[in-house]
Amino acid sequence: MRLTDYVIIHIDGASRGNPGPAACGVIVKNGKGEVLAKVGRFLGRTTNNLAEYQALLVALNHSLEEGYYRIKVFSDSQLLTRQINGQYKVKNSKLLSLYFRAQGLISQFDKFSITHVKRENNRDADQLANSTLDSV
To answer: Is the pTM higher than 0.85?
Structure first.
């Protein structure tokens, strides 16, 4: 990959019970749509919103570890995307600590964006999060 290329990342968090058993899914693709990585992680017992934030943190950490410094993140969580973009305040103290961790990581990227997408446009990340949850 060239230094000017963007990496496209779809993320999703899933919690059964809210709070309940939770997992996240992260799909990383190059600009041609080729899958570079799939990361599914079991998160233990947590809420859906916390799982969404964990998915973002996994994506950010993975990108930095792989040397991807220009990323476009897509999530079906309107709350997450609007909080990260500064449109909503973060009032929940547990989310606030994850928000600050995410902002610290985001500051290390040359280019970063996060965009809300409809659930049907985030199927692969959703399936990965749920299959990760099913496997435990």
So the answer is: yes
- Residues 24-71 have pLDDT tens digits of 999 999 989 999 999 999 999 999 999 999 999 999 999 999 999 999
Characterize 51-64 residue by residue with b for buried, 16 or more Cβ atoms within 10 angstroms of its Cβ, and e for exposed.
bbbbbbbbbbebbe
Residues paired with 7 in a beta bridge: 71
Element (H, E) at 20: strand 20-29
Bridge partner residues of 27 (DSSP) = 10, 38
Tokens for 10? 């779809």
Instruction: Quote the CA–CA distance of 14 and 136 in Å, as a whole number.
Output: 13
Whole-angstrom distance, CA of residue 17 vs CA of residue 46: 9
Q: For the chain, what's the residue count? A: 136
Q: Note the helical H segments in the chain.
A: 48-66, 78-84, 93-106, 123-134
